[in-house]
TrEMBL record:
Specifically catalyzes the decarboxylation of meso-diaminopimelate (meso-DAP) to L-lysine. It comes from Mucilaginibacter polytrichastri. This is Diaminopimelate decarboxylase. It comes from the Bacteria. Pyridoxal 5'-phosphate binds at residues 227, 265-268, 370. Pathway: Amino-acid biosynthesis; L-lysine biosynthesis via DAP pathway; L-lysine from DL-2,6-diaminopimelate: step 1/1. NCBIfam families: lysA (TIGR01048). Substrate binds at residues 268, 304, 308, 342, 370.
Length: 390
């Protein structure tokens, strides 16, 4: 919740900017770490969700591993102090240059997405006289029941190896002397809030790890990916994702042998609640059918509403009462839009807000995941700035 004090501080800062509440971040990391430790689980932070330097430093300081999807993410993970033995490299299109970089860095494991990629990593590792650890990303054909743009585990998605291709994978692994099969990897989608979906995933992982064991492979790592969603309707501090409930599903439904490790790749659930996009009202346009609040931030700073029709809570934080709640003596319905020359540049239609004026500060909440990292320079916009709670 924002207070009058903080909005006074915001008044002196040029907008738009991302505001990071590091207390929320730390409390989230602590909650995840406590729950993971209870079950003996390993968590790699999915860096794609937010690679802001301060966020990375904070996450690294809690001892999390890093899940990377580009050579630059691998490089950044090492630079920011993540232990290389806890760095995994996933992604459907790793270039030779990126694979070489990760081999040189001595990362823990490549999450491999095709037979052809296995062959390439085998060759590149061989050329360096190395043996690369790999996990096979399997497409389990499980529907994540999330927005179709962020579903990844269906046959129709480009990710991973389909189940019918596994015999070919097994033959390839036997012939690739420079590869060491560590485990199997899954990631079925993002912003999954129905824990039943993860139960279904567990059933598929159980079947597939059994399949590999029966073929004579020793599966040491069961990497079940990320995807755990957050509550975008309630952005406050006390609404940190329920990691305990999430991990419990795996503890109850995943078959884990004594020598096996369970790995997770959480992005959104670790960082989403820790940031808000703070913008200013540039203009208020009252029309016959619509009232518009035109902000100085738009799809170039936070594209989620425009790309996935994602809901983010919007608050006018210049009109806070002393208790921090919105003043509601005169509420008006606005379409809250950005300045970009695209009709889709709208954060949300029909938002009820206190009557708002030019210069008011608007917070778009729960913007810590896939916010700043997906910003662009479209319309030759300035790079968005970041401000921290301390
Ligand atoms: N592991 C893999 C292989 C992934 O592809 C992803 C996310 C994650 C882990 C982390 O997922 P998370 O725990 O954050 O759900 N830009 C979209 C989300 C794209 C997710 C891409 N992959 C959004 O703003 O909703």
């Amino acid at each position: 919740m924002f207070t009058k004090d903080i909005t006074t501080r915001f008044g002196e800062i040029e907008t738009p900017f991302y505001y990071y509440n590091l207390d929320v971040l730390r409390d989230t990391l602590q909650a995840c770490q406590n729950a993971a430790q209870k079950y003996g689980y390993h968590v790699h932070y999915a860096m794609k969700a937010n690679f802001n330097p301060k966020v990375l430093q904070t996450i690294q300081s809690y001892g999390f591993g890093a899940d990377c999807v580009s050579g630059n993410e691998v490089k950044a993970a090492i630079e920011y102090g993540f232990n290389k033995d806890k760095v995994v490299f996933a992604g459907v299109g790793k270039s030779d240059k990126e694979i070489n970089l990760a081999l040189d860095a001595g990362i823990f494991c490549f999450n491999v997405e095709s037979v052809q990629e296995l062959l390439v990593i085998n060759d590149l590792a061989g050329a360096k006289g190395q043996k690369a650890n790999v996990a096979i990303r399997i497409n389990p054909n499980v529907d994540a029941h999330t927005h179709h743009f962020i579903t990844t585990g269906l046959e129709e998605n480009k990710f991973g190896v389909n189940v019918w291709q596994l015999p070919d994978v097994a033959d390839t692994l036997r012939n690739c002397k420079n590869l060491n099969l560590l485990g199997i990897h899954f990631h079925i989608g993002s912003q999954i809030t129905d824990l039943e979906t993860f139960k279904t995933l567990c059933t598929r992982v159980n079947e597939l790890s059994e399949w590999f064991e029966q073929k004579g492979f020793n599966i040491k790592v069961l990497n079940v990916g990320g995807g755990f969603g957050v509550n975008y309707y309630s952005p406050d501090h006390d609404n940190i994702a329920d990691f305990e409930a999430y991990f419990k599903v795996f503890s109850d439904f995943l078959n884990v042998k004594p020598n096996q490790e369970v790995h997770f790749e959480l992005g959104r659930a670790l960082v989403a609640q820790s940031a808000s996009l703070i913008a200013r009202v540039l203009y208020v346009k009252n029309g016959l059918k619509k009232n518009f609040l035109i902000l100085d931030a738009g799809m170039t700073e936070l594209i989620r509403p425009m790309l996935y029709q994602a809901y983010h809570q919007i608050e006018n934080i210049s009109r806070l009462s002393v208790a921090g709640s919105q003043l509601s003596d005169k509420a008006i319905i606005y379409d809250v839009v950005g300045p970009i020359c695209e009709s889709t540049d709208c954060f949300r239609k029909d938002v009820e807000l206190p009557e708002s004026f030019r210069g008011d500060l608007i917070a778009v909440r729960t913007a810590g995941a896939y916010g700043e990292v997906m910003a662009s320079h479209y319309n030759l916009r300035d790079q968005v700035q970041s401000v921290y709670s301390e």
